[in-house]
Amino acid sequence: MAAPVLAVTFSSSATAAESAPPSAAEDFSYPGAAKILADRGITLKSGDGHIVLADCGSGTGLVQLYSRTATPSEVCFKITDRTGYLSLEIPQIYNIKGDDHAIKATLNTAGTVTSFDLAKNAWTPVGEGSSTGASTLLELNATDGPAAAPATNPTPAVGTITVGQPGHPGSRACTGTLIAPQWMLSAASCFTDTPGDLSTVPVGLPKTRTTATIAGRGFDVSALVPRTDRDVVMVRLVEPVNDVTPLAVATTAPATGEDLQVLGFGRTKTDWVPAQPHNATFTAGTVVGSGFDLTAKAPADATVCKGDAGGPALRAKNGGYELAAVTTRSWQGGCLGESETRQGASETRVDDLATWITDTRDHRSATANEVGGSGRVRFADFDGDGKPDYWVINDDGSVNVWLNRGGDQAGPNGWLPIGKVASGVTTDRSRVRIADFDGDGKADYWVINPDGSVNVWLNRGGDQAGPNGWLPIGKVATGVTTNQDQVRLADFTGDGKADYCVIKDDGEVDVWLNRGGDIVGNNGWQSIGKVASGVTTDRSRVRLADFDGDGKADYNVINQDGSVATWLNRGGDGHGGWQSLGRVAVGLTTNQNLVYLTDFTGDGKADYLWNPGDGSIHAYANQGGDPSGPNGWASLGRIASGA
């Protein structure tokens, strides 16, 4: 943060390369690598920021090596945290010494790549120094070292978001702001496949494991909800942060000349990966469309660097702060390792996104409701509007959908037929489940195979969207049972993704939480074991559906007399228990197979739907159920004549 600010003007809508600064997302490229190569003859590619080039005379505790091509031949690195990663190329090394960390070094010797463990605080002959011949050092991977001293974050609602493994191909990092217990606001450009192309930002589950750090604690990211008109994304965490106060979002646009506090975890003049956010005062330029420029004020040489993308521009208000904009781009003059001299940054306003933010934050999809059974008719949200649509799984395996536009009581347009949305992959409809795998609010197509494994096709608009309407992601679960009737898919935790639930023959319910499935590795499903002992061995009577609208599936049983009893999900056995509500509905039929519990009205609470036997569907809207008195259920009459 040294060079004076130059007068620059640009907006976030600029598209020409010469007028738009680059993204301020951290790409983990080594700072100043070109100059280091020119000066020292060594190539430093990328890393997590915790293994950095050091002055060999700066003290002890360094990783040291000798190379015949380096200038000078001795090269030293400092590991600044408990773990560290660095990708590099240093040819013709012949001796290397570790520090107190457990360090694995990767070498290329005559085209053969091998890894070995460095001796701690001792020299290890390698390459020409051993019998293997000339070798090039490719990677240093450090673990098991002393942790860095904890840093103090004066704004705990501001944290980091990391895509992939830092320093590895495709990895990125940005800053983000907690705006609700389970939601952060950041820059969508942190998640693009192609820099600058916001159309490549995934909706729902990130393509690569993504983590957020808030107040020193890590949280997996379960879903992304990007804007299509600007560089903004809402990031859902796998669980809420209950001990940090979210920041409010502003409702008025920044005024020209207004002072804003800009925070970020990006690079500084001297640090690659700072442990706490840096803060400076910037002055807002004129708002043009959804963006505006910034000019540093205090300190006058403040700048915005890689890693600051998604960081907040805060407005002082009533003794606190509100979020007025997010950082997206920067010229990065004055940042560590940059030769650019231009400064200034580009911000994207968020004050006009209140409705979108609220709707996204409060959206409860039908993910929490799994009606079970192997019937021809299913209810699930196809288009992501928060209301379940009417699905029919035909005898030939194909799937037709009618979009919920209010049902029969809304008139002739209450159901919008969109025809065949899937050809299907099985004629055994008992193996098909319709539930949201990736957390984008739209129900996906699942198949439970005869060996118990589960395959998923992500909903990208269905057959009418063309050949890419369904995205096959292959096997997402090995499965734990070959009896498909035992398997239910419902959101147990309220993170928007369907979890894998098994109702055993004795009535016990076991749950595996959806952390991305088999495609993300061994941690793709988190077993939490038995969550309920169950109250019936007839699983056809059990409905996992959200009765109280908190986003988590509750345990509902249709009794033999037709009445419905409910236990609210407070975490399940061993995790917070169940709250019994007793009888919540008298019921209209003793045939449990004619009853559905799903949110027809889109208010987040499961309604009572039943088929009187003629194929039609009648509904009663959940207004608290029997415990709320005579108005606990509101009759909506016939909502569908059936198909």
From TrEMBL:
Entries under Pfam families matching the protein: FG-GAP_3 (PF13517), Trypsin (PF00089)
Gene Ontology terms, MF aspect: serine-type endopeptidase activity
UniProt cross-references to SUPFAM superfamilies, sorted A to Z: Integrin alpha N-terminal domain, Trypsin-like serine proteases
Domain Peptidase S1, residue spans: 142-362
Entry keyword annotation includes Signal: yes
Secretion signal, residue range per the UniProt entry: 1-16
Keyword tRNA processing: no
Superkingdom in the source lineage: Bacteria
InterPro entries according to UniProt: FG-GAP, Integrin_alpha_N, Peptidase_S1_PA, Peptidase_S1_PA_chymotrypsin, Peptidase_S1A, Trypsin_dom
Example GO biological process: proteolysis
Coiled coil, from the record: none
Keyword tags: Signal
Official protein name in the record: Peptidase S1 domain-containing protein
Organism of derivation: Kitasatospora kifunensis
